[in-house]
Amino acid sequence: MGISENKPDLNDHSSPVNDLGLMGGMFDPVHFGHLNLAENVLRQLSLDELHFVPCGIPSHRGSLVAPSEHRLAMLELAIGDEKRFRVDDRECLSSETSYSFNTLAAVREERPDCRLYFVMGLDAFNSLPSWYRWKEIFDLAHIIVAHRPEFKLEYTDELADEYETRTVSTVEELRQQSLGNIYFAEIREMNVSSTMVRHHIAGHKPLESLLPAALIEYIETKELYTED
Predict the structure, then answer these.
(1) Which residues form the domain of 34?
(2) 207 in a domain, yes or no?
(3) How far is Cα 214 from Cα 90, in angstroms, rounded to an integer?
(4) Which of 106, 197, 200, 201 is 20 to 30 A from 158, alpha carbon to alpha carbon?
(5) What percent of the chain has pLDDT over 90?
(6) How far apart are the C-alpha atoms of 197 and 142, rounded to whole Å?
(7) Would 200 be classed as within a structural domain?
(8) CA dihedral 56, 159, 112, 187 (to 10 degrees)
(9) Given pLDDT bands bounded at 50, 70 and 90, which one contains residue 123?
(10) Half-sphere exposure (Cβ direction) of 166: Cα atoms closer than 13 Å
(11) CA 115 – CA 133 distance, rounded (Å)
């Protein structure tokens, strides 16, 4: 399967998209936890589209395991026929370090009339002050923080200022501005991570509860993640 075959053109704006979600990550590999999060955010916020943006060259955390071509192909398989999901490959195709600010700025330039919603988990939100040009992200998009019902914020004073002035409690309030708000979307997360998936693969453990069948077949065919 070529990763560009029948792939929608992200620069084709003939169909109006007013509310666009962007969800970054390693997706190494993508799993049911990612898909559950994306589906819940899509539904709760009534987004027109949600784009998965796999990291190319990470600025945080450890090294990627699978090459970009495989992570992109697995994402295409995972989203299947869900037309409101797209895969944005710009970070994977770039030779530069991946920064969320740069990606959001590029999407904002391409889609100036859209409301952008940048989706992240609570851990990522708590670490936001360590990100490149993090405060300027609020000039480009709303931030959507997915969390468990019993979530706990652990932020610095600097992030506390943004939290207190920007957080809204309803989707209706969120939509009153085109960008700059923070909204906490309560989502019952699945107990699955990419690290867990890789350990299961290396240990020859069942994967049916962690990955779609098409991904299991792809990983087995390409012999990915065979070393723990």
Answers:
(1) 19-191
(2) no
(3) 24
(4) 106
(5) 80
(6) 31
(7) no
(8) 70
(9) confident
(10) 22
(11) 20
